[in-house]
């Protein structure tokens, strides 16, 4: 037994010793690697910057220079430095010259290098290479990306779609999204961000995909079109304000509200009486984007809705109305002596980002003074309740 104990001590001591040696080796190797990278940066970065700035200024890079940069790329450290510099210019500078920078990426071989990593790597490498291929914006990557567009790994799929968005080829992007369905693990918000980042003809993809038979895809493109805020899309979107699909109605009213197209204001107001409370709540919030005073009376009626979120969004939209007529609606609501209406208005005031309730006490506006007074009474009641 005693020998077994000694043997165990020696064995584990050796393990700790070799682990310590390994850690020291890794630290030394990392320091050596960093020094080498810094040396290469001083050599490569100014050279790449000088020549890419020539491209930006409309000048040509000679074949000798391109061949020299290509030779640099045979070294993995230099290739990574060059990749980062080229991506920096592609991500931060926009113009016709971007296509020429992409051609440089293709010529020196870093696009093909990432395509090879994408096709033969594990899912982590696939996701990383897909991201980089999107940054290069090379159409050479389209077919390899499309071939993997139905992959089940969410991280890879997200980066494939994002890459195709940055490449900006309309038909390819549409084809990729036709494979997206509710079984995909990507969030709707994530998909909207991808569509928002599309760098091709956005009108073309919206006109096509807003009418997709795939409910999820249609909603994503409708909401993204709202973010795009292009009034030419309002007519297509408005067709779904009264869709039988609740989620499409919600997407459509959000988009029309975001665009602020007054041509469809009457239709949006009608949705304050929708059978689904979620639609009514979104509508009350969307009306905040319109300046026409006709929204105020319907919103005032919604202050008595049986759902809290509808009442709250209606109150916020009224309070955010910039003209003084908004305060007259508040006065009208207070005169109804409805406890729920008063409470929801007070809650909206207290949660408003531009809460100026402290100014109401000395205001010359009777309505504002009344709001301040009732708010203070409510706070006193809550304080007494908590104390007791």
Automatic annotation (TrEMBL):
Transmembrane ranges, per UniProt, are: 6-25
Instruction: State the InterPro entries in the record.
Output: ARM-like, ARM-type_fold
> Out of the domains of life, which is the source?
Bacteria
Q: Which Gene3D superfamilies match?
A: Leucine-rich Repeat Variant
Q: Which residues form a coiled coil?
A: none
Q: What is any Pfam family matched here?
A: HEAT_2
- Keywords linked to the UniProt accession: Membrane, Transmembrane, Transmembrane helix
This protein is called: HEAT repeat domain-containing protein
């Amino acid at each position: 037994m005693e020998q077994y104990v000694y043997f165990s001590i020696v064995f584990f001591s050796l393990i700790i010793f070799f682990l310590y040696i390994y850690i020291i080796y890794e630290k030394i190797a990392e320091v050596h690697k960093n020094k080498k990278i810094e040396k290469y940066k001083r050599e490569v970065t100014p050279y790449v910057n000088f020549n890419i700035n020539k491209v930006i200024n409309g000048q040509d890079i000679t074949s000798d220079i391109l061949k020299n940069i290509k030779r640099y790329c045979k070294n993995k450290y230099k290739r990574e430095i060059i990749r980062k510099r080229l991506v920096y210019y592609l991500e931060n500078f926009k113009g016709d010259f971007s296509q020429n920078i992409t051609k440089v990426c293709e010529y020196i071989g870093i696009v093909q290098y990432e395509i090879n990593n994408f096709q033969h790597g594990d899912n982590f490498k696939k996701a990383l290479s897909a991201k980089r291929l999107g940054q290069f914006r090379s159409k050479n990557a389209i077919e390899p990306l499309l071939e993997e567009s139905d992959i089940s790994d969410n991280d890879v799929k997200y980066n494939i779609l994002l890459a195709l968005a940055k490449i900006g080829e309309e038909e390819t992007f549409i084809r990729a999204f036709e494979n997206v369905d509710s079984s995909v693990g990507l969030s709707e918000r994530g998909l909207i961000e991808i569509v928002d980042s599309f760098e091709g003809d956005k009108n073309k993809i919206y006109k096509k995909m807003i009418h997709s038979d795939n409910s999820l895809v249609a909603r994503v493109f409708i909401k993204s079109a709202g973010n795009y805020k292009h009034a030419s899309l309002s007519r297509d979107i408005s067709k779904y304000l009264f869709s039988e699909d609740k989620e499409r109605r919600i997407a459509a009213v959000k988009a029309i509200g975001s665009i602020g197209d007054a041509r469809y204001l009457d239709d949006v107001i009608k949705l304050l009486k929708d059978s689904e409370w979620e639609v009514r709540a979104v509508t009350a919030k969307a009306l905040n984007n319109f300046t026409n005073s006709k929204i105020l009376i319907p919103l005032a009626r919604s202050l008595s809705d049986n759902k809290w979120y509808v009442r709250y969004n209606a109150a916020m939209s009224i309070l955010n109305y910039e003209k003084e007529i908004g305060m007259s609606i508040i006065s009208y609501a207070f005169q109804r002596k409805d406890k729920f209406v008063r409470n929801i208005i007070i809650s909206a005031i207290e949660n408003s980002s531009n809460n100026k309730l402290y100014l109401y006490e000395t205001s010359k506006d009777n309505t504002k003074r009344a709001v301040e007074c009732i708010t203070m009474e409510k706070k006193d009641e809550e304080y007494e309740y908590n104390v007791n």
